[in-house]
Write the structure tokens for this entry.
Amino acid sequence: MHEWALAESVIKSAVEHASAEKLKKLKEAGVVFGELQAIDGEIFSFALEELRKQFPGAASCKFKIIKQPAAFRCKACSHEFPLKGLKKTKDEAEFIHFVPEMAHTFLKCPKCKSPDFEIARGRGVSISYIKGEK
Amino acid sequence: MTDIDPRPSVIEERLRRVKRIIAVTGWKGGIGKSVTASTLALLLAKRGCRTGLFDLDFAGASDHLILGAKGLFPKEEKGLEPPVHEGVKFMSVVFFSENKAVPLRGANVSDAIIELLAITQWGELDYLVLDMPPGINDAALDVMRFARKAEVLAVTTPSVLAHDVLARSMELYRKLNVPVLGVIENMSDGASAPGAAAVIKKDPGLEAALGRPAALLKTAFAKGLARALPALGL
């Protein structure tokens, strides 16, 4: 249920941004799930539904989940690579799930084996857009 | 619209029930910042205060070694609840690194710190002691940005180098409007230390007590730190 904390950040942030943009009603928010963090969508959505009660501003907001593949760029050899094919144990995957930056501890560039790479895309949870009535 | 990072929106909420946040800072390596932060947390907990300790020095995380904290892991409950060790709620990156190196660039350190601040459920605390990233870098600035209640406790040594770097850093904290509780001069040879709120003498017995909290609290270092607390407003 660590997803609950991130779901709370999404709903709170969406409501705050809707207010900052002077939206009368928040209708939709795009929630990006970066592949690296491997968020459990079912738990996340359950948490969002529970949290709606605490955030009336998001009572009728549709949260659209957008899955984003992870992409890495090696700082040492410039090689670009996806998550697929990188070896990690179950425990290591769990640690990356809690703190995606742990990828630098457990994953390495498949070409030059350096841990000094950039997470170019698909790190974790973010909001890509909000829509509503002005 | 560009991507919104939702995590900062809940950090204030996560720290809402923490009465005081003490950011233990040092600007040079090896001056005793982590030993000070860890011992301070033990002293506050022993006093009966609800105390947390968050090791934010990702590159050199060592509070777990100082406290002899082994085999711990946070509990998943609407986020992560830090495990309690020696009466202190303790959070560290080592829970997620299997004690391996964490080779992070500055922006990655910031990202990891923001993630942990957003998901850690500290609950009610009288004190949260932060073992800060060394120096003034983006990670340290981020901690100050998000932990708005933080009060700085600075650690230095008699070295002229440590003093000079400290003076510059204190100036920066003043500009950032961050309250400074005071400066502890650690590893003192007994000479006077102008500007320091407290002086702790070099303790040859300290090294042998690391990893054993009960022994650590009996050291001359811990006794010196305990004596210094009132002058630091703690």
In short: The domain at 3-133 of chain A is CATH 3.30.2320.80 (hypothetical protein PF0899 fold). The longest strand of chain A covers residues 25-34. Chain A is about 30% helix and 30% strand. The longest helix of chain A spans residues 3-20.
